[in-house]
Fold this sequence. Notes:
- The protein is mainly alpha-helical.
- The chain is built from 13 helices and three strands.
Amino acid sequence: MSVRDFVKILEVKRYSKNTIDSYSSIVKLAVLYFKKPLNRVDETELHKYFYHMVHTKKVSYSYQKQIAMALKLYYKEMFRQNINLEFLFPSRKPDKLPVVIAKKDVLKIIESANNIKHKSMIALAYSAGLRVGELIDLKIMDIDSSRMVIHVKSAKGNKDRILPLSEKILDMLRKYYKEFSPKLFLFEGQKGGKYSSSSFNKLLKAAAKRAQINKEITAHTLRHSYATHLLERGTDIRVIQKLLGHSSIKTTMVYTRVAEPALLHVVSPFDD
């Protein structure tokens, strides 16, 4: 049975598009690694594969967990096998703070982008705290200028949400639309169809490099910065949770560690 069959099962079970894309990609990589059908791969071989991904490929904590979840589900749905992969979940998540950049640096990156299309993509991602998948999944009709909202559909957890649309962003999008005339998706590739997430991250990194921002900049950096800047401005943490689409307030609470208004206004004794 092919990966395509696995995708069909996940579609019928109403998994979100992002989850389906991630899980099918993980399964394809595993098939390429083993060079044989996965039903002929035993648990010992799977354990060696995990060791390879963690120690050789240096995958992140979250991706390691995602590999285990995807392969466990694949074996269950395709072969009715209950493979015990939970113990391969990383035991402790690294306690890292999110990378955040200042508002002026966000502006520098936008200004350093090549054209109005790239500028609009970066500006929209930051202005609404969008995940990269949410940004490239947006269709023209999801921008409601009469209500001044953005309709994010089938996001993480298969949830829709409504976000406020900035007046300045709307102006940028109108200029972009006039020049590029997208057909269905708000941002489309050179040959039409949906823009790719890898292409967006590539253009973002290039713009950040030209802007001389000496940090590792990804689409999630823009999202982290959006949340942190809202918090520093006094926005209620539960409002930020809703805007970001977090199911748990605990996920949103991480931003309180990088943006504590009381601490940010403390003057160092050195300045005296």
